[in-house]
Structures are given as C-alpha cells and as structure tokens.
C-alpha cells in the first residue's frame, strides 16, 4: 500500500530537480549568473520554495553538462568558458546542425516552410531595430523548427545541450553577433529548403555556425591562441 506513495514522492523530487535545473540554466544562458559566479543553493531553494536537495541534484547535472564547475569544499560556480570551449562548441554545432538542415530539406512540409518564412520576417524586423534579445528569440525558434523537421531524432536530442551553450555564449558577447550576416544566412537556409536542396541547406547552415564561431572567438578573446 505504501509503494505508490513512495513513487509519488520520488517523482515529486525529480520534478523539483527539473524545475531547479531549468531555473539555473536559464539564469546562466541569460547571464543573470555570469561566468565564475557562485551558485548559492540556499538562494535557489528559497526562491523556488523547495529544499536544497533538488537544487543540489540540478547543480550536479549541470556540472556533468559543463555549465557548472563544482569545487570540493568551495561550492559550485558557473563554468568559465575559454576560447577553446567556444570554438569547440560552435565547431560541433557546425557539423551536427549542418546534417540536421540536410535532412530537414529533403521532405519539408508546407507548414514548416511557412513558419520559417514568418520567422525570417520577424528576425529582419528585430535586426532593423538592433534588438538582439528579441532577434535571438526568433533565432531559437528558427533552429528548433529545423530540429522538428529532421527525421533523425538522435541528432536533435544530442544537439540540444550544445544549443543551450551557444545561447549562453551569444548573450555574453552580444556586440560580437553580426545580425545582418546571420539573418542573410538564415534566409539562404530557408531558400535552400524551399528548393529541396539538401546540400545547399547544409552549406549555409555550416557557414552560419562557422562565421559565428570565428567572430565570437575573435570578439571575446582577441588574438589569444586556442
């Protein structure tokens, strides 16, 4: 008779850990928690109205994913990204999302094509206003739409964590993001998908990540060697 109760309690703890994970990750992505800043368990527990245990579990998962560094007897801190970290993350996105775009262009639905076109219009509007954060919202929707269009769900599952990290990087180096070039590259991706040209879709997607990689590494770290 007690087993369902135990299972419910266990699920409750898992759900709380997920809530804590989402909250901390969002703060890292949006640079509310900056690189090298300590993550105070008590503060999140109080803010989220939960015990420290699920917050601690969330921090553990984030440390495995590379967003957080835990030092024995010192606590947890937002990981400090090196130029190599940024380079490696974007290099991976260039390869993996290039394949996602390749597959997405093979049999795109009219619904997805329409959505991509609408997102390009919105990105152009925000680019004209120099509103990076709003532009980034549409950019995220754009890439997530490509992921939905990809039949290989193993690819899209593994690209998600990398995608979170690129958001963190871009919000840290807002001035290093070239909205003009980025929007034009997204338009080229859409045009390739409309034409069912998988190779071109992959080419422009890889170009998008490659250009961003070089620009952000140069903007954020200058001439420091990788």
From TrEMBL:
<dbReference type="InterPro" id="IPR036390">
    <property type="entry name" value="WH_DNA-bd_sf"/>
</dbReference>
<keyword id="KW-0805">Transcription regulation</keyword>
<dbReference type="InterPro" id="IPR011711">
    <property type="entry name" value="GntR_C"/>
</dbReference>
<dbReference type="InterPro" id="IPR008920">
    <property type="entry name" value="TF_FadR/GntR_C"/>
</dbReference>
<dbReference type="Pfam" id="PF00392">
    <property type="entry name" value="GntR"/>
</dbReference>
<dbReference type="GO" id="GO:0003700">
    <property type="term" value="F:DNA-binding transcription factor activity"/>
</dbReference>
<feature type="domain" description="HTH gntR-type">
    <location>
        <begin position="14"/>
        <end position="81"/>
    </location>
</feature>
<dbReference type="GO" id="GO:0003677">
    <property type="term" value="F:DNA binding"/>
</dbReference>
<dbReference type="Pfam" id="PF07729">
    <property type="entry name" value="FCD"/>
</dbReference>
<keyword id="KW-0804">Transcription</keyword>
<keyword id="KW-0238">DNA-binding</keyword>
<dbReference type="InterPro" id="IPR036388">
    <property type="entry name" value="WH-like_DNA-bd_sf"/>
</dbReference>
<protein>
    <recommendedName>
        <fullName>HTH gntR-type domain-containing protein</fullName>
    </recommendedName>
</protein>
<dbReference type="InterPro" id="IPR000524">
    <property type="entry name" value="Tscrpt_reg_HTH_GntR"/>
</dbReference>
